[in-house]
Amino acid sequence: MSAPKNVLITGGCGFIGANFVNFIHFAWPNCNFVNIDKLILNSDVNYVCEEVRNSPRYEIVLADIRNRDVISRVLNSKSIDTIIHFAADCTSTRCYNEPCEALENNVIAYVQFLEAVKDYGKIEKFVHISTDEVYGDSGMGSDEIPKSEAELMYPGNPYAATKAAGEAYAHLYQQAFGIPITLLRINNIYGPQQWDVKLVPRFIDVARKQQKFTVQGTGKQLRSWLYVDDAADGIRLAAEKGKVGETYNLGTYYEKNVLELAESVQAEVDKQLNRPPSKVEFISIPDRPYNDMRYLIDITKAKKELGWEPKISFEDGLARVVASALKPHFAQKMSIAIYGGNGWIGQKIQKLLQSRKIPYKIAKSKIGIHSTKQLKKLLSKDILNFEKIIIDELNELCVTHVLCCTGRTQGGNFKTIEYLEGGSDKAYENLRDNLYCPLVLAHISQKLGLHYSYIGTGYLFAYDSEHTIGGKGFDDAGMS
Ligand SMILES: NC(=O)c1ccc[n+]([C@@H]2O[C@H](COP(=O)([O-])OP(=O)(O)OC[C@H]3O[C@@H](n4cnc5c(N)ncnc54)[C@H](O)[C@@H]3O)[C@@H](O)[C@H]2O)c1
């Protein structure tokens, strides 16, 4: 296969995904791209450069890859022939803290995605991005043998375990259902637009402020350093030439430990800020429960079969990252659907979002209240599936966050909640608008992988001897 026609990229608003989009848009000049991302963590729509964002060959769809309706719609309407799959929760520390969430995102959502791809049945090439971390630790000796693709997987942290599980499912769907998957296990990547919890951007920030470098454990952990454009070119070659069912390592033999990295970053930042060399000092911070010391991988197969090897030197790569980090950036990290957006609080929130240039859309459906037209449409399909109206609307809106500002606080001649004390029909309205609606929205948001916020009320609290009028405020534990 040479350059594809219509490519779906998952996770293309993250660090590697966005750099890949910026690279491949020009490397495959006749190709159309759809980027599906749910904007978790540090992702940003604007990591994709303006020229690409404005191109008719590029489209962004904000959705979770687990949303089979949206994935099927995109695959079919765009006649997708190639998939490059990046989407994952990639932060080792976060995955330690939230191992089940990481499993749900990196494995369960991925399997739902694979199901949609299987049903579609017209993919010609699928590149699955995995990590060297699936191999687990390498020894620290200078005679250590780099790990080849035939090595067994021994993941040493929850993130790596989810990536190994993702690979297992990729293998299964390739074998059993013929999805043409090629797997890439890539070394530690650095480049512009990486989240500042990661080593290089964190160190650039420290170096700029001339602070002390925080180091987990001894700081002697060795990492190989692969520049993101080299990785992007390897991914391109895997899409064009990689064999289906095969795995390729992409990486470098250029290693530096964390302490040495700090020295290099400080020197480059000082150089670009035109100031004399700063002193490099360290402070130790608690280590992860287990921190692999080294990932040394063998890249012979990629060299031989894909004709790939890294070209960008560490010095050149670091200079590019520092230059990019020192430039101002206008972020777009979310898009919100507001329910109850025309109420009093909804309008205030709209103003706030406008002032912060955060995109939002006002949802129209009224949960629990259906028009005759909507009901007739449902009757022909599934009378009990009222949720479908909301799901269809959210799939149409394509947002990353849902904000629920709905609630019944007045009605009729009453401008206060006294309205709700007027009899059993009011109890129905009260439960429908103040309980059923926020709960249904929460449930649907979870199902679609959307972030959900609900604006509750201070009426949940009651003054008592400890919390008098004008006295101490309530906290979460103070509900009565
Ligand atoms: N950073 C590295 O050094 C490195 C090395 C080897 C492999 N990888 C792999 O490369 C891929 C990208 O890593 P990254 O460093 O760019 O991470 P990142 O967090 O910057 O990007 C991941 C992107 O995926 C999106 N995403 C996550 N779950 C999603 C879901 N369920 N639906 C839709 N979008 C979702 C996020 O919003 C984010 O934009 C990952 O698969 C990672 O395992 C990373």
Automatic annotation (TrEMBL):
Keywords: Membrane, Transmembrane, Transmembrane helix
Domain NAD(P)-binding: 8-320
Residues spanning the membrane: 7-28
Molecular functions per Gene Ontology: catalytic activity
Annotated Pfam families: GDP_Man_Dehyd
InterPro entries reported in the protein's UniProt record: NAD(P)-bd_dom, NAD(P)-bd_dom_sf
Protein name, UniProt field: NAD(P)-binding domain-containing protein
